[in-house]
Fold:
Amino acid sequence: MAPGCLIRDVQNGVLGKRDSMLALCYLGLCHSVIEDTLLILMLGADVAGVLWARLLFAVVVVAVIARWPATEVSNK
Structure:
């Protein structure tokens, strides 16, 4: 799902703001999985280890962000 589709869905009320923020965080963490993996492979790393570690890191970070307490920002 492209960020433009996320923005459209939030504006139409299909997707909540918190859900779109989590999706964008995940996209940001995983957007360059292929390129980074190829770079690390050139240094001699294991492809499966790098891909699984990258995916696990992204899921853990998004899970922590999802559990973070929501705060209201007031304009005083």
